[in-house]
């Protein structure tokens, strides 16, 4: 046990340790645990093989002690240095009678005691007598005085922390709302998509019409260019020279007319 204690320390100061697990470390007595563990709150010594609690240290802040599956038959008075103890598990030990439990009267804060699989549980009216012996006790072997099962500590903590996952938390409604939002979003997206398609179609038709007009304009320009080219070619072929010829003929007629007048 001493080696296991040193291993669990992991280089820390004993006063810094709040939880210590020494399960299955194999020892018949308490070795290695000292009064230096002044802030220890949870200690587990399950299946160690303890036959006595002699030498158990004073642990002023210890609230939970696990001692199941050992060979303890008495000597609970050695736990008197743990005045704040609220949970004590002694199941699977060798406790035979109620006298062995009398030292627990000193633990005014003890709420949960487990003696399952001890011979003392076979005593007549065992539960009634144990509850009478320890007025502060709320649960014995997992059940209260009215045989109601102890509440799960984990569930209690979840409720206190607001982590209850019951159906009344409105999570289902939120999921439905999310689904409706998703559907609306899909519909709106599809509508936008269709509008875009219509706009693209309209734009395409406009572009097509403008292409036709542009083609017509191009054809007109080509026609005008052809006319200009035809005119230029005619001019080049001598049509432009006709005007000088006509003017020459006119000059000849005028000259002949002048000669006739003189005669």
Strand order of the largest sheet: 1-2-3-4-5-6
Mean pLDDT: 75
Structural class: alpha/beta
The end-to-end span amounts to 167 Å
Query: Helix amount, in percent?
Result: 40-55%
Number of helices: 5
Largest sheet: 6 strands, parallel
Query: Tally of extended strands?
Result: 6
Q: What general outline do the C-alpha atoms trace?
A: globular
**Low-pLDDT sequence parts:** 154-176, 203-219, 233-252
Percent strand: 5-15%
Compressed to H and E, one letter per element, the order equals HEEEEEHEHHH
Radius of gyration: 55 Å
What does this structure look like?
- This protein is of the alpha/beta class.
- The protein has helices at 2-9, 126-133, 153-160, 171-237, 242-262; strands at 19-21, 42-44, 64-66, 87-89, 112-114, 139-140.
- The chain is globular.
- It starts with a helix and ends with a helix.
- The relative contact order is 0.05.
- Residues 142-263 are annotated as: Disordered.
């Amino acid at each position: 046990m001493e080696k296991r204690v040193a291993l669990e320390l992991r280089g820390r100061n004993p006063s810094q340790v709040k939880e210590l697990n020494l399960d299955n470390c194999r020892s018949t007595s308490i070795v290695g645990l000292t009064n230096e563990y002044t802030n220890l709150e949870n200690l587990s010594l399950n299946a160690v093989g303890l036959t006595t609690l002699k030498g158990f240290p004073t642990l002023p802040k210890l609230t939970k002690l696990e001692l199941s599956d050992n060979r303890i038959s008495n000597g609970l008075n050695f736990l008197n240095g743990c005045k704040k103890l609220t949970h004590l598990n002694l199941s699977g030990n060798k406790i035979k009678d109620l006298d062995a439990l009398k030292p627990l009267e000193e633990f005014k804060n003890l709420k949960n005691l487990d003696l399952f699989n001890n011979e003392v549980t076979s005593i007549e009216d065992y539960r009634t007598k144990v509850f009478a012996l320890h007025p502060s006790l709320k649960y014995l072997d997992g059940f209260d005085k009215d045989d109601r099962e102890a509440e799960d500590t984990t569930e209690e903590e979840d409720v206190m922390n607001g982590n209850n996952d019951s159906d009344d938390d409105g999570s289902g409604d939120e999921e439905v709302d999310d689904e409706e939002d998703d559907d609306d979003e899909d519909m709106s997206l599809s509508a936008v998509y269709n509008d875009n398609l219509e706009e693209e179609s309209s734009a395409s038709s406009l572009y097509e019409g403008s292409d036709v007009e542009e083609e017509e304009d191009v054809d007109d320009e080509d026609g005008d260019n052809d006319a200009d080219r035809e005119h230029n070619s005619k001019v080049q072929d001598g049509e432009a020279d006709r005007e000088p010829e006509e003017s020459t003929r006119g000059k000849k007629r005028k000259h002949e007319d002048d000669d006739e007048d003189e005669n």
